[in-house]
Amino acid sequence: MQPTSHAATELERRFDAALTGATATAALSPSSHNCQPWGLARLSTDAARAAAATLLGGGEERTDEEYVALALDHGRELTALPAHAVEMRVSCGAYWRTLLRALAAQGWAPSRVRVLEADARAPFSGWPPRWSLLCVAALRYGEGSGERFAELRTTAGARRTQRGAYRREPLDAGLLDALETPTVKELWPGTVTVQHLTRPQQLESFAAFCSRYAGRDFSHPEAWRETHSYLRLSRAEADMRGDGFTLRQLFGPLTPARHLAKRVLLDPRVLRPLCRLGFDRRLADGLAATVRAGTPALTTMGFTTAQPGPADLLAGGARLADYWLAAAGAGLALHPVSVVVQHEDLRQKLQARLGLAGRTFFVSRLGRPTAAVPPTARRPDAGEHRSL
């Protein structure tokens, strides 16, 4: 009779150390509202390993493989808008990609990967009830990817969302071309298209679009209520909660008086009647002014299929992670302008207006920041995983 848990080996201990470093690195991945909606399980018991082997194509589990599973944590996902279903899986895909890159940099490359269909049931004992299984991978130890883990970890730590001003000088065309080309082997090549918009008329057209439509970020009651629930009044609160973003990260340095004013005006109970008086348009004009003041380039990403499935959504997140890490390594920052793709009518209008390829799921300002910003908070258990 086989034991319920296979004996620890030197290879397992090596994987333990690699997974600890990889999860700490992947925990720095971007997510909408910094909600961090992912979950990770290491499948280590004989029963869990056998179930993983079955999901990955049948046959017995291999003693030279380790198994991990990616989940969407429904307790942390955004749900106010239909488009959030895409955003959450893209966020999980960014985490998964960074995790697999960090493992491969330490010698553990994926040998088999399977994306599960929506609402797939996880056949693992002890699986958290609020998790949905997204993907399972088997990993084997060998040469790995050749990427330097220390450099990847440093770059992930340097990645920033910078909503403030960027230096106005144009970005080098060669750098932009390099960012459009994947430099790390993709699990799902050809799934995502990347475009850069740099011509003044394109940037002005986007600024005008934001001025006209970005107020919906604030005037949509359910969406703003959910956004506000992630708005932290101080860095101390953000660190305590381990998620969300601060007023300073949203608006830059604020005097005590302006901080109090923003705190009051952005309260959903106050903002909703103000939007009826046009305050949402004023806020949208502020975003448009930021675009005009210092945005040397826009980055857009789109799915190559009109109806992206589960694998496409994870691939979108993977491409986003690779892109953002490459941009951070080049000293660039991003400022996603999510409102323009979170509402289907706005997404279609923007695609037509700017001639964007594919089904757009990501639009961001891109540039060299003029000032440093602190990193976003992370949950105390962000670098941990479940063992099943």
From TrEMBL:
The lineage of its organism: Bacteria, Bacillati, Actinomycetota, Actinomycetes, Kitasatosporales. This is MarV. GO terms for molecular function: oxidoreductase activity. InterPro entries: Nitroreductase-like.
